[in-house]
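Weekly puzzle thread! Below is a chain. First person to post its structure in C-alpha cell form gets bragging rights.
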Amino acid sequence: MTITSTRSTELTGEPNDAAVTLRQRLQAKTATIAVVGLGYVGLPLVGALHEAGYGVLGYDIDKPKIDQLKRGENYLHHLGDSLTRTLAESDRFEPTCDASHLGAADVVILCVPTPLGKHREPDLSFVLDSTRMVARTLRKGQLIILESTTYPGTTRQEMMPLLEEGGLVCGVDFFLAYSPEREDPGRKGMTTQAIPKLVGGVDDTSGKLAMTLYANVIEEVHYVTSAEIAEAAKLLENIYRAVNIAMVNELKVLFSEMGIDIWEVIEAASTKPFGFQPFYPGPGLGGHCIPIDPFYLAWKAREIGRQTKFIELAGEINSQMPRYVVGRLTVTLNERKLALKGAKVLIIGIAYKPNVDDIRESPAAEIIELLHHAGAEVSYHDPHMPSFPGMRKYDIDLDSVELSEETLGASDCVLIVTNHDAIDYQLIGKHAKLIMDTRNAMNGIEGIAADVVKA
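Winning reply:
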C-alpha cells in the first residue's frame, strides 16, 4: 500500500511520554485498536485496520453479530464472506460484547449511529453512551477517535468533558480526535483504504497521533487544524449532495407538469464539460448521512441564533418526495378509473440505494406506510432484502415476493423505488399493467407492453 499524507505526523513542541510511547506503538503496529460499533462503518474499518497489520478488538452490543463474526459469517452481504472468514481465522482479531476489554486497547474508535429525534433534533445518545462506556476504562496513553457524523463541537464540547470526569486530562494523559467516516456501501472499486481520510484533533498532539494511525491504514490522509473543521467538512460533503438532489427533485415536479422528462434534461445538461455535475431525482433520500446530516447543522445554527434557510428548504423538499410519489400514483390510478384504496401495489426495491441490503432511512418505508394508510394492498420484491427488517420509526411486516409473470399480472401497479441491477426489468415491462418508475429504471428496456409513468 502506498501511503501519502498532506502533513507530517511528527509530534511538535514538547510531547509527553504518553504521546511518544503511543506514537511508537502506532508506527510499529504493536498497538491494539478497538472499534466500537460493527455496522456499515465499523466492520469495513476493522477489516482495513487488520489488513494493515494491527491487532483489532471489535466491540458491539449486538451479541448475534459477535457470534456471527466468531463463526466467520458476514451480516453485511455487500462486503462478502472473505472478510469475516479472514478475521475469524486470525489471532489479531477479537470480537466481543464485553466493554471492559476496551481498557486494553491503545486506540478506541467510535463508529456509532447519530440519528435524528422525533422533532429532527440531533440524537447523540449513542455517541454519549459510548463515550461514558469508554470513560469507565479510560487509562493514560489512550487515543479516542470519533468517526460518527455530527455537528461541529461534538468531540470537544460533548465527549471531552465526559472523558475527563475521571481526572485524566485530554492532550496530556489521553488524546481525542475526530475523523469522519466516508463509507458508501455497495460502491464498487472503492475500498475503505482508497477513500481519503480527514483527521482533526482537539489539540495538535491528538490530531498527529490519529494521523499516525490512519496513515498506516489509508492511502491518503488529510490533516486539518481542529476537530471542528473535520466535523464541518463531513457535513458540507453531505449537505452539498442533499441540496443538489433537492433541486432536481423540485425540477422533477415542475418539469413533469410541463410535460418535460427531467432525466433527458439532466442527460442533455451533462454534455457541458465544465460547470455542471449531474444529480438525479428519486422517491426520497435514504442512507444514514444525506437525509440526516443537514438537520444536524440546522439545529446547531439555531443554537447560536442563526437560521439555515437554504439547507432546511432542501430537507423539506426531499422529505416530501415519498408523499409526492404516492400522490402521483393516486392520480395515475384515478385516470384509469381505479382507486388507491384496494389497489394491489407491488414495490420493486426497498433498500435505500441499488445493490445493497441497507434499509436505513429508505424512502420505501414511508411510501409503504402511506400506501397502507390509504388502503392499498402492498407487496414488495427485493433480491437483497428477503424480509422487511425492523426500523425505529416503522413496523412493517412483509416478506419479499417472487418476481414472476403471475405476481406482475396480479398487480394494479408496479412501483419502482430502488433500481437494483439484479431486477429483471424486461420481465416487469412485459407483464406489468402499469409501471410507476421513480428511478428511470425502464429507460432503454425493450419490449415494454406496460404503461410507464415517471414519478
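Puzzle host: Confirmed. Bonus trivia for everyone else. The mean pLDDT is 92.
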